[in-house]
Amino acid sequence: MKLTVLGKYGPYPAAGGGTSSYLLQGESAAVALDFGSGALGRLARFVAAENLRAVVLSHLHYDHICDLLPFSYCLKAKDKRVELIMPDTDCFQRKIIDDLDGFDIKFIKPNMRIGEFDFSFEKMRHPLESYSMRISSGGRTLFYSGDTAFCPEITEIAAGSDLLLLDCGRAENTPAPHLSLSEAAFIAKTLKAQTIATHLNPALNYVSPSPLVTVAREGETYCV
User: Whole-model pTM above 0.90?
Assistant: First the structure.
């Protein structure tokens, strides 16, 4: 599996940046994990958007979904449809998504097969219903936290993963409902797993505290 960072910021991008979106590619399928600002144009460098097997949303906050709107125009223009897998959340954003053309909506179940990928989902701790994703294919496993505050379950759910993609949007010693960089480093050390720090707050300066933790770079592709 290959993971490409399309957008690494949250809740808004730094100059020239994009918000949370990632491209996962296997032997025969490509899936987008979240679809924030800038995702559609950046995706086109790697895969034709209409050829995605699916878009999978961890949750429905704007910084994870906003490029679905122009993507809908793209799909309508090309007379294509793409599967959209998301939480069954009753919120304003859900009403917007329901009105978009081009998507075949399915709701998250604990375990799902999407193309060649086996997904398992666990509810995390966030103001809006949000899910982590454990994704396996070809004997390799990626764990994506989605947006979440720290909870002990993360180390249990992510154990045995080959690569961790962790939300690091919280400044240290603040109450924001996200992980901090030091918490991501703790998880990486506990699991002895290579980790990519993402969902970066553009107001913060990120310096990796551990050889296990890489600060995400947009456009970079990582092997799982």
Answer: yes
